[in-house]
Amino acid sequence: MAPLACLLQARGHRVRGSDGPLYPPMSTLLEEAGITPLEGFDPRHLEPRPDLVVVGNAVPRDNPEAVETERLGVERISMPQALARFFLDERRPLVIAGTHGKTTTTSLAAWVYSECEADPGFLVGGIPIDLEKSFHAGRGERFIIEGDEYNAAYFDRGPKFLHYRADTLVLTSVEYDHADLYPDHESMIAAYEKLVELLPGDGLLVACGDSRKVREVARRSAAPVVFYGLAADNHVRPEGEITADSSGCHFSILDPEVGSEEVSIRLHGEHNVANALAVWTVAQRDGLPMAQIKKALAGFRGVKRRLEEVGTARGVTVIDDFAHHPTAVAKTLAALRERFGERRLVAVYEPRTLTAGRRRFFESYADAFSLADAAFFAPIYHSKRLDPEDRLDLEALERRLRERGVEAHRLAADEDIPESVASSLRPGDVVVTMSSGNFGHLPQRLVTLLDV
Questions:
Q1: Which of 117, 267, 276, 413 is 20 to 30 A from residue 252's alpha carbon, by CA?
Q2: Does residue 219 sit in the same domain as residue 314?
């Protein structure tokens, strides 16, 4: 919502808005755009009467300003509706969707197109390290947008990505998530199928062919389909071995349109190789210069909170990551193994979302955290909102991991998590914190404690 507000202000609209207390980087972002948010929610904030109210999906139906908007009869729309109305008309939307990898792939696409001087518009759901901001109106024909599958607003319960009218769609993965919105896997698949069906016949679907579910969803496309991925049956894939060192990953891309080209990226993990393949595929088919694409891929440093190195203190390297789904946890830990070799790997995990705290992922979590040498588990964030029979059994998970040789610990709710974790660390360790929230700024606090 904050980047959207900044985009609208830059377009010449007069923007004001309300929220809870805001902190950097969002407060700084708004301040730089000349927007002073009103703190708290009060019907009087709608004075003078606005022409349009954009409602975020965190706003409930009984919010005082939402109630007043309805009473006044002021037009209201959701965030994705606003983005479509003001920025996607007369552009060619490039939408990146999927359960995993959206933010990194969207950021990488925005970086590559920018470095190739295509001046794209973009809106990213994270903070890219290399781009000046996470948003840009741009003047090029492309607008690159992260296609979120979560709902748009209390009055617009469908997924955000259905509003974006994709001309080109990148589909990275289709796994079950957001159990509070999608009652089962089938309902989530149906949402992705609808997204694919909206592609025009002269559009393009770039889909990760390593996923059986993605291939099934791709059958709904009236547009041409290009499969990318690591497996040999993809159109665009690595040729030969993927090598990794401290600088990143190195491999050759085999693409039927151009043959074989050697590429390097500064990121680690096979999932990031796949992300690079997706962006390569789109950029090549948009006719961007190959040499500039390769240079841009090699220069991209990633996104904050995606395998972000926060600091090193007392010989311990602290990494922060957004992983909250067991598949993402496994990919994160595998990438760190690749990057740091035999160093002791410690994972600290907060099951923060309503999906993350569910029993159905028990076996997937056991497999994922088996990649670590030690694992710490914070209490389930939404424990009280989950029925006991649906709740992830952290005690059983701790036992299972110990049976597999992983040093596993549950952290009590009243325990000082930073001090408990810091006291277990020793020089040479790599510790990664994983949560979809700020986790009480745990990675920064660990660096501070270790630095004493």
A1: 117
A2: no
Q: Are residues 313 and 385 in the same domain?
A: yes
Cβ-proximal residues to 314 (8 Å cutoff; 6+ apart), any chain: 425, 427, 450, 451
CA atoms within 13 A on the CB side of 450: 26
Domain range for 243 is 81-299
The amino acid that residue 349 corresponds to is Y
Answer whether 157's CB lies under 8 Å from 78's CB. no
Which residue bears the tokens 């993350």?
A: 356
Total of domains in the chain: 3
Dihedrals φ, ψ of 281, to 5°?
Answer: -60, -45
Are 192 and 99 in a shared domain?
Answer: yes
- By DSSP bridging, strand 151-153 and strand 156-159 are antiparallel
Q: Based on the domain organization, do 24 and 147 belong to the same domain?
A: no
* Side-chain half-sphere exposure of 133, counting CA atoms within 13 A: 20
Amino acid at 261: E
Taking alpha carbons only, the member of 300, 118, 284, 134 closest to residue 206 is: 284
Whether 367 and 425 share a structural domain: yes
Of 214, 246, 178, 280, nearest to 430 (Cα)?
246
Burial bucket for residue 415 (CB in 10 Å: 0-12, 13-18, 19+): middle
pLDDT (tens digit, 9 = 90+) per residue, 222-239?
Answer: 999 999 999 999 999 999
Indicate the helix (H) or strand (E) that contains 248.
Answer: strand 248-255
Please provide the DSSP assignment of 208-225 as one string: ETT-HHHHHHHTT-SS-E
* pLDDT tens-digit series, residues 325-382: 888 899 899 989 988 988 999 999 999 887 788 888 899 999 999 999 999 999 988 8
